[in-house]
Amino acid sequence: MPDLPLLDPRFGGVFYCLKELTMFQPDLATAERPTGDWQGYVVPQDWGHFTADDHEVWDMLFARQVPYLGARIVSPFLDGIPKLGLDAPGIPELGALNAKLTPLSGWSLVPVAGIVPDAAFFAMLSERKFPIGNFIRPADSLDYLEEPDCFHDIFGHVPMLASPAIARLMEALGKLGVEAIAAGEGDAIARLYWHSVEFGLAREGGEVRILGAGLASSFGEAHVALEAELPRPRFTLRDAANMPYRNDRFQPLYFVADSLDEVAAELEALDVSGLKQLAGPD
Q: What is the DSSP letter of 210?
């Protein structure tokens, strides 16, 4: 196994509390705010609080990421950028972005102050809402954050949400996630999400390309996922559901789906009963 960096250059925590190893999340659930009550985590984006330096950080991150991704990422991602106007300079204002996204796929973006618990996250997805951090990393920490910021959330995830097929998949994962957590299968659905939507690869046009948002938004890990000498096993639901992941360093392997359409169809068709079978003994 290659000697991978200890700290992920994107951030040290995990995307919206998908639990596996040491987590960087506070316990935000209270009697007044159950974790599945996602509306309680929504805050104003307060776009006006972003400074000129903040917008410059967005532009720097965008300018270095897009040229590398090029033909190295699945086509719905590249299609989504101009459809949503994400190639315009500066941090997008969520109201304006929703005005373009919602007519395309029925999804809308909701601002949050940081990481939200699993149940709230999947409940958001089940209602075609995607959480967006209302902050951006400082200029002196372009490659390290303790939790996902608006560049990861918007640049990494939102272009794909403009695709109706991906929009259906993400809603299905949200509904399955809510049911899975209630059935005690939270780890299994978190692993599937992590190894596909966040850090998955997929074949397209005869090439292995980036699928996951964690790779799309990470300059360092995008290179590692495609170029480093490490395992890239074929994605199967069973293998992904049983493969622990790392949130404190680059992944030790990256699953490769036969195609974006195939992995989307498999995940969209999965129910809790099937998830339990995947997470059980062979």
A: E
Integer Cα distance of 93 and 103 in angstroms: 17
Q: Which of 87-96, 228-237, 238-247, 267-276 has the lowest mean pLDDT?
A: 238-247
Q: What is the pLDDT of residues 55-70, one digit of tens each?
A: 999 999 999 999 999 9
The angle at the Cα of 119, spanning 113 to 240, to the nearest 5 degrees, equals 110
Task: Indicate the residue type of 173.
Answer: L
CATH number, span 15-27+34-273: 1.10.800.10
CB 225 within 8 A of CB 201: yes
Smallest CA-to-CA distance from 241 within 266, 259, 216 is with: 266
What are the boundaries of each domain within the chain?
Answer: 15-27+34-273
Cβ distance 172 to 127 under 8 Å?
no
What is the rounded distance in angstroms from the CA atom of residue 16 to the CA atom of residue 177? 13
Amino acid making up residue 205: G
Judging by beta carbons within 10 Å of its beta carbon (0-12, 13-18, 19+), is residue 103 exposed, middle or buried? exposed
